[in-house]
Amino acid sequence: MKWSEITIHTTNEAIEPISNILHEAGASGVVIEDPRDLVKERDTFYGEIYELNPDDYPEEGVYVKAYLPVNSFLGETVEEIKQAINNLLVYDIDVGRNKITVSEVHEEEWATAWKKYYKPVKISEKVTIIPTWEEYTPVSSDEIIIELDPGMAFGTGTHPTTVLSVQALERFVSDGDKILDVGSGSGVLSIASVLLGAEQVKAYDLDEIAVKSTVLNAKLNRVEDKIESKQNNLLDNVTEKADMIVSNILAEIIIRFVKEAYDCLKPGGIFITSGIIQAKKQMVRQELENSGFDIMEVNQMEDWISFIAKKPEAKQVL
Questions:
Q1: Interacting residues of 15 by C-beta distance below 8 A, sequence separation 6+
Q2: CA–CA dist 296, 315 (Å, integer)
Q3: Is 164 left (phi over 0), alpha (psi -120 to 50) or beta?
Q4: Mind listing the pLDDT tens digit for each residue in 217-243?
Q5: pTM of this prediction?
Q6: Quick one: the chain helix, strand, coil %, rounded to 5?
Q7: Are strands 265-277 and 304-310 parallel, antiparallel or unpaired?
Q8: Is 225 strand, coil or helix?
Q9: pLDDT of 230
Q10: What sign for the dihedral angle of Cα 28, 34, 38, 39?
């Protein structure tokens, strides 16, 4: 089979929404080529990315690449992708140069180009993410291993926004917790929640591909009995009470359901939000505080921000 490689020259801010657009268009996976990866210091056992060629990277911005099968609908698909990316401007998302190029690759070349980017990655004190094709031996008895197949998922779980989310989950999930994962994507946060002790996770995503991806990855990690994946728009019509809500999506989307998140949490419940660029930090903080949340922590990795907010405990009536 022949494949078409579509490359979008854009910004860090636009990586997540453009990746979602590409997946919705039928891409088998997304590769991010960020020039900062060439100079990033890494612990030797992380093995996050290797064999990097500087010639593959832009001098500024990032390349977001995806692979689409060459068929009679390819031209229409590319035009739909271009239009969807242009529509991001409505949400005040900086798409940078927004230069799009298309080239043809053969299937064997695609497979090699795809898998060379991904190796086991230790993203927190306990959690290590490994692609399904890699052999990996845990380095400690309490290490938590999450297997992901990037070919069917929204990335490999190593983006800073995901890392911030997992690190927060590791610190705040308690045994027996009931958790809502809003915008579940690959399901990595749902899976991490269960492996860290949660009793039940309900994973919501508007994208049918994400729902299927969460189901498949949950089975891959043998936690499908504790994760219910459902197609849903944010927390619309969700009435149950949770101990924790985690959401790794765009700031513009987060502020649309902060009030619903507050209502869905038990008193003392935790709301973990990530996917927020520095420029949108104050906007999200204000919405959280206006809705009644107490800000416990603001954490940062590279240009990305995460909030850990708490719904106040119920007041005792004397």
A1: 32, 62, 64, 159
A2: 19
A3: alpha
A4: 999 999 999 999 999 999 999 998 999
A5: 0.71
A6: 35, 30, 35
A7: antiparallel
A8: helix
A9: 94
A10: negative
CA–CA gap between residue 287 and residue 123 (Å, rounded): 29
At 198 the pLDDT is 97
302 DSSP 8-state letter: T
Q: CB neighbours of 295 closer than 8 A, spacing ≥ 6?
A: 285, 288, 289, 307, 308, 309
Structure tokens at 275: 């996917």
Band of residue 246 on the pLDDT scale cut at 50, 70, 90: very high
Helix (H) or strand (E) holding 209: helix 208-220
Q: How far apart are CA 51 and CA 154, in angstroms?
A: 22
173 — phi, psi (to 5°)? -70, 135
The answer to whether 128 touches 119, Cβ cutoff 8 Å, is: no
Greatest pairwise CA separation for the chain in angstroms? 73
pLDDT at 151: 55
pLDDT of residue 43: 45
Dihedral angle sign, alpha carbons of residues 130, 131, 134, 135: positive
Render pLDDT for 113-160 as a digit per residue (tens, 0 to 9): 656 666 778 888 899 988 887 788 878 888 999 988 755 445 556 678
Q: How many CB atoms lie within 10 A of CB 88?
A: 20
Task: Tell which phi-psi region holds residue 113, choosing left (phi > 0), alpha (psi between -120 and 50) or beta.
Answer: alpha
* Domains along the chain with CATH numbers: 2-115 (3.30.70.120), 146-310 (3.40.50.150)
pLDDT for the residue 213: 86
pLDDT tens, position by position, 172-196: 999 999 999 999 988 999 999 999 9
Contact 179, 198 (CB under 8 A): yes
- For 93, residues 6+ apart whose C-beta sits below 8 A from its C-beta are 13, 14, 17, 250, 252
- What amino acid occupies position 68? L
Tokens (6 digits) for 240: 């149950």
Cβ(178)–Cβ(199) below 8 Å: yes
| Mean pLDDT calculated for residue range 254-270 | 96
